[in-house]
Backbone:
């Protein structure tokens, strides 16, 4: 609303004599042009593939597509070197993937795998699906255990990233994957210790879970991690997430509600992708094991 | 007789807030004691025959009043009508 005045007088046409002015106030609605809404960035939604006993990768992939998908993106882990791309687990996904592999930073920094990694990155498809690769995801515990130093890790990461950059593949994204816990002040960790540099990181990925024994709010699980990625000015993604179904949640409706809350929360954020850890690790079962929880994640995938 | 100044006794808008493009009506009431309406009645008479036309009455206003408005939003106000001492002006919001 803009405010104006109109001032009026009565004037004698012949003599020009005028009355005292009288002022009247009025308002006119201003035309507010809302800025265009920001573009909706729909994340890719997927999961890891936990294989049942005797199940092949393809069978497991199909089962996940059926029960919690269809998956937009698949998390593929290599505990050591990545398989040659052709025929690999990642290639069989036939869709966007997040692929991680591990070598010791000492070996990487010594140049032991320069030739292989150069060749491997060059072999990745350029015109099909986006590939987010990561070297040595979640290094924090290993560094704290003394397996290698943070400086060695950062140096190795930068070296591997150099091979990826040399492939000149527009569908290849350098993805640093850290633990969500690392940005929790209680961890005593410093994000910078694990960050190899803005020039070599395309996407910051987080592995972040609800605490055992409860369904944490999404802001509790992801808030600090997202804030850290934003502070770095980098796109970010959830590379692993999950909540263990509570024993009191017999039907899984609570688990499903947690999944839905994640979906809602991520709808207000801008992750590149969100991946559920649909597996058991040690004795911790994070699987979407009930029909309501599976449907909730499947619905999220379908909506993406 | 010395001129007296016109006097506004009231001025008001038909609304206090307007939408863009809406008509705004300003009503001003006032007068000037100097203003006077006079009537002049005339007839034509033939010098030759002495025949006389019907009477014709004309009116004229002496010291006629007019409203003058200025707007902080530079909107032009035009006078729509006058009825007695009441003047009606219009502008577009």
Residues:
């Amino acid at each position: 609303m803009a405010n104006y005045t109109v001032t009026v007088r009565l004037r004698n046409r012949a003599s020009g004599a005028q009355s005292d002015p009288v002022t009247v106030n009025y308002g006119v609605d201003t035309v507010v042009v809302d800025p265009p809404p920001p573009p909706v960035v729909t994340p890719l939604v997927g999961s890891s593939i936990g294989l049942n006993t005797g199940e092949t990768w393809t069978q497991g992939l199909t089962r996940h597509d059926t029960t919690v998908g269809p998956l937009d993106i698949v998390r593929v882990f290599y505990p050591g070197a990545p398989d040659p791309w052709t025929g690999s687990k990642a290639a069989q996904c036939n869709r966007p993937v997040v692929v991680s592999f591990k070598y010791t930073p000492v070996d990487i920094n010594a140049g032991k795998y320069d030739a292989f990694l150069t060749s491997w990155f060059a072999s990745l498809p350029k015109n099909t699906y986006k590939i987010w690769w990561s070297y040595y995801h979640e290094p924090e515990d290993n560094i704290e255990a003394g397996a290698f130093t943070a400086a060695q890790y950062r140096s190795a990461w930068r070296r591997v990233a150099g091979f990826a950059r040399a492939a000149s593949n527009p569908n290849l994204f350098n993805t640093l994957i850290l633990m969500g816990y690392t940005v929790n002040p209680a961890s005593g960790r410093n994000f910078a210790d694990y960050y190899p540099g803005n020039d070599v990181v395309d996407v910051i990925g987080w592995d972040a879970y609800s605490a055992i024994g409860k369904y944490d709010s999404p802001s509790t699980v992801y808030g600090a991690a997202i804030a850290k990625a934003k502070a770095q000015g980098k796109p970010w993604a959830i590379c692993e997430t999950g909540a263990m179904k509570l024993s009191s949640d017999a039907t899984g409706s609570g688990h499903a509600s947690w999944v839905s809350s994640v979906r809602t929360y991520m709808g207000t954020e801008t992750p590149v992708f969100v991946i559920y850890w649909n597996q058991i690790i040690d004795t911790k079962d994070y699987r979407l094991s009930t029909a309501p929880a599976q449907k909730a994640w499947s619905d999220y995938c379908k909506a993406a | 007789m010395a001129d007296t100044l016109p006097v506004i006794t009231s001025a008001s808008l038909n609304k206090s807030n307007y939408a863009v493009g809406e008509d705004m009506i300003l009503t001003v009431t006032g007068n000037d004691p100097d203003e006077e309406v006079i009537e002049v009645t005339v007839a034509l008479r033939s010098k030759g025959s002495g025949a006389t036309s019907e009477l014709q009455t004309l009116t004229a206003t002496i010291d006629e009043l007019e409203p003058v408005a200025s707007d902080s939003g530079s909107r032009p106000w035009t006078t729509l009508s006058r009825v007695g001492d009441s003047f009606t002006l219009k502008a577009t919001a």
